[in-house]
Amino acid sequence: MRTTLLLSALLALAACSGPYFTRGSDDPSIDEPAMSVRLDREDLRVAMEQWYAAFNDSAFVKEIPQRERKIAILAIENDTSEHIGSALRNLIELVETHLVNDRVFQVVSNDTIVADAIAQERLRDLGDSVDPETVALLGKEFGIHYFVHGRVGETAEKTRDTRRIQYFLFLKVTEVATTQRVFQLQIPITKQVEG
Amino acid sequence: MNSGRGALLFIALACVGATGCASYEERMRSARRAYYDGDLDRAVELLEEAADSPGVDRHVASLELGSALLTAGRYARATWEFEEADNRLEVLDYTSVPLEDLASFVLGGEMKDYRASPPERVLVNTLNMLAFLGLGDPEEAAVEARRLRILLDRTDVPEDELYANDFAWALAALTFEAAGDREEATDAWRVVPGSPLADRRLTAGALAEGERAGTVLVVVQRGKVPVRREAIYLFPVGDGLHTLHVPTLVPRASSFTGAQVAVDGAALGEVPTLFDLGAHTRQRFEREFTRLLAAAVIQAVPRTVLTESLREQAVAQADDEHKPAVEALAWIASFLLDLGLAQLTPTDTRSWSLLPEAFHARRLNLPPGEHRISVGLRGARTVDLPFDVTVEPGRLTLVHVATGPHEGWRPLPAARRRNLEGRPEAEKALEILEAAAWWREHIRP
After folding, report:
1. A170 pairs with which residues across the strands?
2. Residue A18 maps to a domain
3. Does a structural domain hold residue A91?
4. Which range marks the domain in which residue A170 is found?
């Protein structure tokens, strides 16, 4: 009897140790806490909602001619000291998904543009503004009327046991024909780690 | 009889204390041996075990693992390891930390998590830049370059040291260039304007009209950085003999003195040294040594007072007949106990030991297309390593070589004690120990 009890206790202990796995659909709260100072899905969702609301309300979207609605998301440059490249690629996909589902614009996917070697080389050297040759290429090769590009900057500060990063996400929409910026939004995101 | 029993108990205590723990060198020997004998898979496996274990070596083992992964060309895994190290690694600067902390961390340090030296900390981002460039991801490498710049801006590193690592700055500048961050590249080049990596002239071949050159960056990590070992100094205090345990640097011989490069069979000469890490480490240690000695004294004071006290008590309790024998036994026992107590808080000899003696680098600006880059390691032995690379216009391709797996494993040389005679810091250390013994004897018997 004593042996059985001891074995049961040991089995219970063994069952209590080791890694635990949880499905987000079973426990949605696991998506909520910030796990690092990088950008997570919640940050992207909030950023996306802000951008989408402002974009839809803008005079640019309301007044856009019916025939000139071909748009592409080019790149969001990471100018921070955090490895958020994959989060920014996801953000591009999110923006594309919203635009496709809205049916207001015809979306030329980022993958199509990146697959073009010349465009890829030009986009790699893309700075804060897009040079006239790249703009011409986008119009000529892909028939794009507008493109979205952006960058993320940061202000990073650190005290003895706290590190805070204030991200500034800038998203800009440029008209290919005129190279004029027709819409621009800045979205702030702050992350902090203590201890 | 009582005095004889006391002396025996004293000796037993001393013998128990004298059985010390394995040093970092002993704990890492198998992994280092596998690495330097060229068995990188085995080295990675052993270092993964050490980095995943909850012991005090996990943080430094993670750095060693990052180095081994980078050498093995397992860049993605290396970036993960270096990022983890970057996030959790704390820094301890022997040249500025308070003496009490230095005594606690360095001379009882193997009881605690590893703290990197500032030059090691800088190299986490430097090697991670290389790993991301190896992956062909200059944007992520640029993130490491920014982290490096922020680190150097924030840390209280003296200016001569801040700019000592030309390789890190030049690599950062080249990385920013490759990522298309022109302003940041310009800022970084300003720190190292004369760097050989700044040369944008075509190295070999010719460009067709309108064609853009690509860049091949050849990086050679040559030799083995000096590592720490414990040196024991003997000091006579009162009638007894006592010990000071201080980390010291030991050099490690390399089979190679330099590297040469050839492109498509045409010899281009040396891959120049951009950062002599070994010399930098030795200079830094010279600056640290006085403080290390002072910290060792702080740690030795209670040990000296205790063992002297026990020795004197044993002698005082001995009857006249046995006194000479007890005195001799107590002298031996107090010395052994001193050694044993020191082993209970072993000197921290951990360091990132898979780092090289020197970083060599050369920039090759080549026409787009297939090229064979040959890196020749020269010295007591000669090793030729060919790399077939595809150069793309405006892109950077990394050719990375570490001589480590071609060096062959050799046991670490013994720690050589420095001659402390006549050195003011050593005389001061002796005075402090003597004063402590005198204080115990006369003021608070």
Report:
1. A151, A186
2. no
3. yes
4. 37-194
